Amino acid sequence: MLYPIRRAGSSAKKHTAIWLSMVLIGSLLTACGANNGNREELPGNPSPAASAGGAVAEKGNAPTLERTVKDELGHEIKLPAAPKRIFAPYLEDSLLKLGMKPVAQWSNGALGHDYLQDELKDVPKLDLSGGLPSPEVLLSYSPDLIILHTATYAANGLYENYSKIAPTYVFNNASGEIEKSLVTLGELLGKSSEADRALKAYEQKVKEAKEKLERATAGKKVAILRFAAKGVSLMGANYFCGYVVHQHLGIAKTKLVEKENSATVSLEVLPQIDADYIFVINAYGQGTERMKEMMGSPIWNGLSAVKQGQVYEVSDKHWLGSGLIAYEKIIDDTVRLIAK
């Protein structure tokens, strides 16, 4: 704070007053600088810039935080302080868990993540059935952060083109370990506390579900059959619903996928499915004919699970989803169908 200098009766007094004022101003500025330094470097309470590996820059009275991070492919990117316009195809589930919506959502043709449409009804769909959008199309959505959920999305020069539009973070495979990728998303978007709350709530849900399922699934096995246009496959334990049922809920899987993440199923292979329960998924409604063909065969009707009436068709809408919202719905279905 500056005080008015009182006029002195002599030149000497005037010079002295000016000199004292300059000393006072210098002292105040030094003290302010020291206080700022102490606030940023207190032990155990580092500045945001130090924590994130970036630097705090001030524009007028609005401080911003520039963070430099590396993605899972080793790209070094600079993140905006608080990214709001996010393009993250196939990560919509996790974004919603963090309380955010993307600028555009993934879709296969006109079909998006059906189980998320109540929350995403106002978000435009982008058809990714033929690949990711061109840089020109993406630029029209003005993203300030691009997040690609798998390394294959970044191939063929797409990363280089996208990174010219906005900082672009690439996962190796965000669908493989949703908990880990949710934590990373929380860090990128400044939503770590939201990610932590979501994971704790999910852990509690898993715990309660396992207690309900314990008696019904002890010593039993589950098979998850996916009927699609191109064929029939048995889903393993590394992704999507298989990850939830086998790893989170701890229900044993058939021997056909003990070491593999999936297995092609034909009438010849069908007798090897040693499962007490079978979950059936008609992928995007394109497996109807194959379901009729296989389920009408004597081989199918000779399976133990079929004889016991323990075959259940479940919704492809969330059983093929990737994120905690989908996982919670899968848990609800599993408990409802098995823990009777």
TrEMBL record:
PROSITE patterns: FE_B12_PBP, PROKAR_LIPOPROTEIN
PANTHER family, alphabetized: IRON III DICITRATE-BINDING PERIPLASMIC PROTEIN, IRON(3+)-HYDROXAMATE-BINDING PROTEIN FHUD
Ranges of Low complexity composition bias in the record: 43-57
Coiled coil, from the record: 192-219
UniProt keyword Oxidoreductase, yes or no: no
Places the protein is found: Cell envelope
SUPFAM superfamilies reported for this sequence: Helical backbone' metal receptor
Name of the molecule in the record: ABC transporter substrate-binding protein
Residue ranges of domain Fe/B12 periplasmic-binding in the record: 83-340
Family statement: Belongs to the bacterial solute-binding protein 8 family.
Sorted UniProt keywords: Coiled coil, Signal, Transport
Keyword Amino-acid biosynthesis: no
Provenance organism: Paenibacillus hodogayensis
Sequence segments annotated as region (Disordered): 39-62
